[in-house]
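Why should sequence recovery work at all? Because a backbone constrains its sequence more than one might expect. Tight turns favour small or flexible residues, buried strands favour hydrophobic ones, and helices have their own preferences. The token representation captures these environments compactly. In the example below, the structure is given first.
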């Protein structure tokens, strides 16, 4: 289903992003964000994930910097119509309209081309883009493969897509046929027992997060005997 949806959206992007400018994705952990990422790669344009924790003003700064032609908005916030905006309802229409489309491999992202751009705050507080090529991504995944255990079946997908640690779930665990267990910001507001139940019921066994988030979840006592491997990154 992920493949079919990304095929359909790639057709729309090919028809509407004439200048091959980056696709800006504004959201949290919505499943269709992964669809949008794959669709962008299938037409050879980089995507720019922007977390909903960032205010709309920051989103506009980033969109201006990359000269975005299109923003996919999962946030539910009303955005200015200076750019072409897609929302969740429009995405469903696209999936239905182009459901039979098959992308052309010749258009997929090339080895030296950009896969995505991650924006950091920078020392001045202004967003600064870090471009990552397909070659960069492949070098990382080829190296990190040794740390993704074969006996682990369910991986945590909690790290914001605006941070590079999220790449482990997206471009290692997913291609290795692991189930991605999304933990979004709304869920983190709930009672600890509900979070624990969610992780236990889905038999989470491969943990990926920052050390501080791991500390927080240890404090909430949400862990279970299913977890086989823990990986922390992004902080000391």
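From this structural description, the recovered sequence reads:
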């Amino acid at each position: 289903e992920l493949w079919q949806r990304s095929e359909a959206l790639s057709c729309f992007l090919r028809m509407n992003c004439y200048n091959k400018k980056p696709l800006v994705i504004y959201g949290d952990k919505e499943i269709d964000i992964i669809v949008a990422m794959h669709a962008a790669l299938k037409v050879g344009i980089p995507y720019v994930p922007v977390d909903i924790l960032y205010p709309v003003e920051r989103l506009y700064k980033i969109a201006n910097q990359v000269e975005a032609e299109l923003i996919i908005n999962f946030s539910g916030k009303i955005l200015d119509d200076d750019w072409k905006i897609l929302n969740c309802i429009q995405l469903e229409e696209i999936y239905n309209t182009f459901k039979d489309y098959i992308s052309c491999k010749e258009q997929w992202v090339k080895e030296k081309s950009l896969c995505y751009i991650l924006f950091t705050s920078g020392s001045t507080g202004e967003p600064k883009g870090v471009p990552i090529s397909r070659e960069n991504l492949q070098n990382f995944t080829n190296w990190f493969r040794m740390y993704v255990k074969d006996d682990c079946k369910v991986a945590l997908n909690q790290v914001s897509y605006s941070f590079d640690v999220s790449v482990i779930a997206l471009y290692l665990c997913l291609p290795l046929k692991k189930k991605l267990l999304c933990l979004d910001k709304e869920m983190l507001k709930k009672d600890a027992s509900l979070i624990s139940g969610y992780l236990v019921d889905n038999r989470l066994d491969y943990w990926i997060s920052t050390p501080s988030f791991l500390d927080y979840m240890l404090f909430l006592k949400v862990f279970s005997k299913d977890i086989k491997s823990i990986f922390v990154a992004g902080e000391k």
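A few observations help interpret the result. The chain has nine helices and ten strands.
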